[in-house]
Amino acid sequence: MKRAMAMVLAALFLAAAGCGKQRKGLEPVPDVPGDQDKPAYGDTLVDSSTADAINLIPILASDGASHAIAGLTYNSLVSYDGTLNLYGDLADHWEVSPDGRTMTFHLRDGVRWQDGRPLTAEDVLFTYRLIINPKTPTAYSESYKQVKDARVVDPHRIRFTYDKPYCPAMESWASLSILPKHLLEGKDVTKSPLVRRPMGTGPYKLDRWITQNQIVLESNHDYFMGRPWIERSVTRVIPDTATQFLELKSGGIEQMSLTPTQWSRQTVSKEFLAAFNKYKYPVSAFTYLAFNLRDPRFADRRVRQAISYAIDRDEIVRGVLLGLGEPGVGPYVPSTKWFNKNLKPYPHDPARAKALLAEAGWKDTNGDGILDRDGRPFDFEIITNNGNAERLKTCVIIQQRLKDVGIRVSIRPIEWAAFISDFIDKKRFEATVLGWSIGLDPDQYDIWHSSKTKPKELNFISYRNADVDALLEEGRRNCGERERKKIYDRLQEVMWEDQPEIFLYVPYALVTVNRRFHGIEVTPRGIGDRWWNRWYVPKPLQRGQIQP
Amino acid sequence: MRAGPCLRPVGPLSCARRPRPFRPRIQNRSGTLFAYLAKRLLFMLPLLLGITLISFAVIHLAPGSTVDLETSMNPRVSAEARERLRHLYGLDQPLHVQYGRWLKRLATLDLGESFAPDHRPVKDKILERIPVTLTIELLALGLIFAVAVPLGVASAVRQYSLFDKISTVVVFVGFAIPTFWLALLLMILFGVKLGWLPISGIRSLDHDSLSAAGKIADYARHLALPVFLSAFGGLAGLSRYMRSNMLEVIRQDYITTARAKGLPENDVIYRHALRNALLPVVTILGLSLPALIGGAVIFESIFAIPGMGQLFYQGVLARDYPLIMGILVIGAVLTLVGNLLADICYALVDPRIRVGG
After folding, report:
1. Residues in chain A within 8 Å Cβ distance of B146
2. pTM confidence score
3. DSSP symbols for A303-344
4. Which of B192, B209, B306 shows the shortest C-beta gap to A211?
């Protein structure tokens, strides 16, 4: 018995140690002499994702992992570059009619599907018709339904006409991946083999997809913007971020988003920096404290301003993000072109906060340290979604600061599904800490316009401001970039004064990539802009074969 | 005869000590066994139906639906699109209609299509995950038995000795340590510091280019830590159980008799006592049946193993009702079958039952 036991254990350790040729992590990557640091084809980029892709037909997928893969295999008509300017992707160029209602896209010559068939305007028309088809299970048809007429002018030109000028249209064309008509026409799109095996025009094509394990893409040598430098792109599914970090340190993955703690404490050793480069840039998202504006206490602008003065944003950035973020000013990310640079975050000014609250009738009459009005103390509850440590810490800091000015705050984290369907959708909350991610177009009609306050719509805080409404509508009609910049600058000024939400912070994305990969540039949108034509591994650093 | 089998699915200690519901006279006429089997199988049907009904009701009680989770807080989704999706999924129907439809499909052994955007048949999704989970669970179960049984016997034979005490502490430490924590420590040791074992996943990136032996070795290296960890946590139950069984048996009269006959101690322990002490283990095996495909969520997340636990967990998070129901039904069937098998096997192997009738 004991011998059997010993043998089993011995066998295990032999299996473990015997084949122990596993490469150790943190191999330093040497510098390359300037004359050899040239782009070269080859090598593999291994990335990881916490979730597997679900459906690689982009219009059917709603998860980030699927879109990340599909984005490498398909193209849209236009796209946004690192500074949020549009460039032609499948479209060589495009024209918008003077009245802003008609858009004509001229397709590039010589673009081919990965099976060799040429791309034509028919494919674009087909994709558009597919997404507005009520039988297609997609949630994203809304912006395309604004199109009144879609017409193929010739095989290389397609024209979309709208009822009225609709500036966010460009963003909708930037987010519509064009699908191959010849493989999908007349078939049930949900049953198509393309769900698991995409066939697009993009820089990469699928080699294999092992469910919940890995997705391997190979470069498309005929890609119309030039063959990608990096030969293969592998995405490993690793649900646990702690495991991801260990994989990074052992050489199993070569790129990862870090947490603030990892960035400032666990990736600062010489060994780490000899193997990895680190990049940081603001995420297109902001975290905010929002109030239910149907509550008369919060409907008073002075109360919202007071709370905004009472909160120390720098403290939150320091405490929650270890300084790796920026204090929030308004609903746009500082460093992007739509941000109004004249505005500054509300300073931390408790005296002013108290004065504003007193002006609004909130005074501590009974001396218990809590403000009151008409015999009712000022206390409220902040809800947030469970499992997001950053938001919870933010709540705690807010709780402390508001106590200083005499407002009692309680905090309740709630599981996401219940949070949305029982509290936010039903408007059963007093205040909440949440985040918005920001689109590429400055239009934020759905979040702030007073017509979007119905159940399940996004203006769940019930914000109503006639000036804001007017500016949002104007921003949708005047598509010239300079006019729009003026409109959205004004919008930010109005919001700064009105504080519909307390904009707390914009976190940084913290990315680390193996030093083998050269050509990485940080832009306001991050490091990913057309990386396939930019990132490369110089020949002396290339690894011949992929390793575990 | 009491029909209610024990419904607690896993854990050696949970069900084994209940009074046996069944002591049939199996060898009398083969007809009796079949009649008994038929009866038991028949009783399972309403039980299964009840399980599905309760499961169905409970998962729909959870707030949020597939569509909400897919579309909430997304500016690009209109209310109308949301309604259309609800209709496509059949979620706009009253609950009993949805249940009826699901049941009708189940009757033809069709588990339906997943609500996830890939719309794949639930059956495919489950089948694709079973091999990994089954392999790990079988290996772990094998390892548990290989270690826990000798450990329990040795502890019992040397009751209150130093060995007994140390092994008790070790197995309880294994039982009490949070798996995810130990997993991370072992990953740091073997994966990062020593570089002997891969950290996660079940296959290397160059797996396809390996020889057949290389492939097996590759799997073995990936599975070593997960199997070891899942066995380590399970040692306590079985070894303790084995120990108490053995202690009970050793005190029986026939052991005293065996010793009085002058049999060597080894014969007494391993031939007479052990065999009898092993009998109830059969029950544990039967009850382990559903656990074999159950998988474990935290464990699979940490090791990035594409197993059943993760599939189920993600199904629950996304409110993928057909998938959740599919897995629950399979689990329920296996639990019921496992109970039946345990009962039958117990009767078959226990000489007292056979002789006593």
Report:
1. 4-5, 8
2. 0.83
3. HHHHHHHHS-HHHHHHHHHTT-EEE--SSS-TTSTTS-TT--
4. B306
